[in-house]
Design a protein that fits this description.
Radius of gyration of chain A: 20 Å
Shape of chain A: elongated
Oligomer: homohexamer
Structural class of chain A: alpha/beta
CATH topology of chain A: Glucose Oxidase, domain 1
Number of strands of chain A: 12
Number of domains of chain A: 1
Distance between the termini of chain A: 44 Å
Chain lengths: ~240, ~240, ~240, ~240, ~240, ~240
Amino acid sequence: MEIPGLEPLAAETFELLKRVSVATIATQLFKLGLRSRAMTGVGPILADTRMVGEAVTLRYGPTREDLDQPEKLSSPENPQRKAIDTISPGQVLVTDARGDLRCGTLGDILATRLKARGASGFVTDGAVRDSPGIRQVGLPCYARGTHPNANFHALHALDINVPIGCAEVLVLPGDVVVGDGEGVIVIPRHLADQVARSARDQEELEQFILQKIGGGMSLFGVYPANEQTREEFERWRAARRRG
Amino acid sequence: MEIPGLEPLAAETFELLKRVSVATIATQLFKLGLRSRAMTGVGPILADTRMVGEAVTLRYGPTREDLDQPEKLSSPENPQRKAIDTISPGQVLVTDARGDLRCGTLGDILATRLKARGASGFVTDGAVRDSPGIRQVGLPCYARGTHPNANFHALHALDINVPIGCAEVLVLPGDVVVGDGEGVIVIPRHLADQVARSARDQEELEQFILQKIGGGMSLFGVYPANEQTREEFERWRAARRRG
Amino acid sequence: MEIPGLEPLAAETFELLKRVSVATIATQLFKLGLRSRAMTGVGPILADTRMVGEAVTLRYGPTREDLDQPEKLSSPENPQRKAIDTISPGQVLVTDARGDLRCGTLGDILATRLKARGASGFVTDGAVRDSPGIRQVGLPCYARGTHPNANFHALHALDINVPIGCAEVLVLPGDVVVGDGEGVIVIPRHLADQVARSARDQEELEQFILQKIGGGMSLFGVYPANEQTREEFERWRAARRRG
Amino acid sequence: MEIPGLEPLAAETFELLKRVSVATIATQLFKLGLRSRAMTGVGPILADTRMVGEAVTLRYGPTREDLDQPEKLSSPENPQRKAIDTISPGQVLVTDARGDLRCGTLGDILATRLKARGASGFVTDGAVRDSPGIRQVGLPCYARGTHPNANFHALHALDINVPIGCAEVLVLPGDVVVGDGEGVIVIPRHLADQVARSARDQEELEQFILQKIGGGMSLFGVYPANEQTREEFERWRAARRRG
Amino acid sequence: MEIPGLEPLAAETFELLKRVSVATIATQLFKLGLRSRAMTGVGPILADTRMVGEAVTLRYGPTREDLDQPEKLSSPENPQRKAIDTISPGQVLVTDARGDLRCGTLGDILATRLKARGASGFVTDGAVRDSPGIRQVGLPCYARGTHPNANFHALHALDINVPIGCAEVLVLPGDVVVGDGEGVIVIPRHLADQVARSARDQEELEQFILQKIGGGMSLFGVYPANEQTREEFERWRAARRRG
Amino acid sequence: MEIPGLEPLAAETFELLKRVSVATIATQLFKLGLRSRAMTGVGPILADTRMVGEAVTLRYGPTREDLDQPEKLSSPENPQRKAIDTISPGQVLVTDARGDLRCGTLGDILATRLKARGASGFVTDGAVRDSPGIRQVGLPCYARGTHPNANFHALHALDINVPIGCAEVLVLPGDVVVGDGEGVIVIPRHLADQVARSARDQEELEQFILQKIGGGMSLFGVYPANEQTREEFERWRAARRRG
């Protein structure tokens, strides 16, 4: 699904983001003045999941009994079906399900279609259904819960690719979405290249710090690193890169 | 604010709806298969409020610190300001504030502008601010709470006149919104004429029933009314209309 | 409605309980080892309400669409209608509405019937509807909220006069229910005579204390009262009774 | 435990229900007008659980300190102990724990007794305790959480085999309860035969659909299936049955 | 109660703060980078309350049955009693009640003592009790609810004059606390003089704006004010001050 | 970290507590009149965890933007860092995170430091971050959730070793904290020796009971055990000890 007007990203950005934790990205965004870009309460359906992609969005409202009947799902204009059927490789479908946990907004058949389209993953602030089946499909999926009901039990699909809120995070189409075994964070697109690099740097430093702390050193001077620790780190990193 | 493509309503509809309770409308909509059209947790800022009007909608997402600064409010494209500045007489501004109670989405100056425009009222599933001032303005206002913070503390205005959810009710632009001293209900536009008449009928019957119950009659046969009670009611109503 | 097997209460108990606050009764019950007999979140629909009576109970479950239709309310076996239609003077209808705030379990017609029957009041851990009308009826009513929907929108009446939970308090038929401008408390029937007397005593002492504290005395020694304060109180009370 | 007055079920019903997902049953019940029969927030204590059985019910109220002491559990009239001690093979004990997560309503010894009696499983909208031990017992158990406290910390057992609410679902004794790796659904008994067959049919169709979607087909025309897809499916099924 | 090490405040600060709304102060603090200084969910027990003072703090933990008995309240070291008995004129007692609404942390006798001491008010993120009595005392009181239970039912008083959280706001002893008919805000002490003046300026401007908007002007250019509006305002203010 | 003034514990206490379940301890404390010493909603980050230790405490308040910046963490007076850097072997760090789930209060580096110091574990009523990394460290960790944000996103560290509330349990420094695969309980220090022994006794009895129930016996007379069962148990235990 084409999202018009997006600035291109650096070639290495997705690769870098695949190798850093969501926690590290959260700290980098905090330093840029963005306090709340990691979702609250949204976790992976399968342990050890990793996901990076570009956000396409889907928005739900509350159900209305006369509008939300199973047969309406066959319409080519149904926003949920259209979003899933036309998503592009490398995209993540992020859905504003109003935090409603009384129905699921993805089942095993739809997850299979997302995977067949090459989507990078699925994120909702509601629930998914057929969760045992979704685990078998293997698509990275993040949700606040699972529920056997279909989406029309409680929700009404409204729009594709408008800005949405998901788990208290503002998500614009084209934002960069990263997930790991803990949660999901949404990087404003114009910051993605910068954050990818600074997160990589932070993780290298923290690898060094972890080694020292694991060896019995005090936190003070080391975490956060003072001048001396940073210099040691620079030498360690230089040596490692040579090595 | 013009809402394109709306069917006209019967001349008497708004008049009828002003004289019936929201509770009565809820029962009429239930009988048409719509279980959840009355908002939960949304009440009047001023006791004894009554409101009828056509919905125009405003949608918020979560705040993003770099986008949501007070100076952004001066943009003619700010959806909140635009909605309030261009609303038409007889319209009600219904806002999807994501149920967020950490900021207010209307203050006394904006309420004054709504009133100057001839708006019929304001509804939010979030909070209002400057509530002592809003009470003085006298515009019918319904909210889930009050909070001193401005909307940019927690919310980001996104759209005007798209379908929204508000307090778990799907609201389409042009839907008919009715408020009383208890709460708010949203009638799908195509049902408004029918519901206005049937609600009027129900209230006439209940006035008759209330008189009988107040006089000491048992509920059974009277509330709900059986054949005999309905016949008595028809005679009572006919007499009253003559009289 | 007769509740079988109840022990009689002392003649003065209801009179004493009408003159003490719910807060005072809560302290007396705490001293008897009962920590949680005052309801949480349940308040009066009308300010300055006072209520004392014997509990009759009504229990709801969640709604089931095929069972809960308005026409079912005409059945003489509908537990809600039956409870309201057969309540006796001096009784309070206490309803377990599962804490559900998406519908009301009493409207103005039913409140009118309760009043005509001589009921002392109504308590629910859910909502009431037609609340502006209920205020006019004048029956003491306590609830956690108000909602325009009728009970069949979300609830299904199940039983009369079984033990229930209401706002986290276990209520047995025949328990003594007391309400004031703040809230509601439920006294196990076998403790009602004792608690009525000890609450009266506490309030007399607190009246004396309030006078001293209002006059500028320190809390220590006075509230709680030490030996000396108690002796002063005894003299004050004796003097006052002589009058 | 005998439940009086139950209609017999078709011989194949339990077998069919063991092989379909709860999500599929939820859709079939929705089509019959029942929107909310799958429990919200109730999940299996052990992954990959499957359970089918007939509901027997147990109801709790809030605790009262003088009534709820450990020694009261030895009474042959204690409803919790009686329900567990007299349950019959093929029955599922469904408990209304008021959604209270501050104590557990089943421990490893009681789970062992349920299993020894041949019970099909246990469902609560509260918590279970001794959850590591319960996992070893292997009885299918569904709950909203786990808590080390015993039930008398927060709850008081009241009744056996009355209609109850559990996780916002009305449960009548004799209803058919089905659980899988995702959740629990309660089928009104008179619909169980019909739903078992239609769920089986839906799962066959979805197996066919999943194959097509996995093979790269678009959702439209396939899910939901249009006339042509249904015809293909009929041929596929006929072939498979022959095969 | 003396709070050591506090910087003095400008003489006019309290006077200025008495005349501005909490909503205005919230905006001024936002402009200084402090997003969340207004309490959420805390409102006045009496409508039309106004309060300004210096924070003294009281901290509660959860109750422990053996420690929290009514007789413990007579100890001169009980932190609640000590705080109330030694508060100084112009101070506001702010209590961290853990957001617990199952008991009250102030009753009418204690409110009377606070008033006799000259305290400016009382704030809690929990409940107060004896609320009808507290209304008669007339001390400005802010809370999240009311409950008949005494504090020992659910809470245990721990400390006086340590930093606390109250309704999600960090409160340091000596911070300046302001309340109006809507809510409560806490100004870090070192910002109080500056915020008092800038809030006064904002309110003067908004008075001018309100007049224009009430007269039918558009929001744009006026609210927020552009250059031209600001110049008009300067002339208006100058004229008014002369006048 | 030394906690002044603690009474010594019996040599065997920690050993006994390692071998009993938290559920058993909860029952023993209930019998001593302490109803709520097991935490609600706090579970192990890693399944099959066991933990016993002495509580040291850390207290958080809400964040204040100017105080809570990453660079503040390098101060030797930062309470979080100080607590973690100076904890002693056999101690458990229990943190009052205000139940806030919008940030984590422990990450993999800090968990590594706790482990290097010989700490027995970590407990919070908030979240941890870097949870995949924490799982690898292997320190027993209990939390209400996980979140990628660092603590300064939402919290401000205030104190070390003061009494705190954690998940609705009052925790005094030096209290004995026990965790298993289900949850966490806090034993008041002066009761630890007694409870360790009585819990051991209860578990022996329940092992005997479990055997009988597993063998098909009725609950009545066995669980709870009557005189006869207790005598059988005494013989069984005596035999086993000889054996």
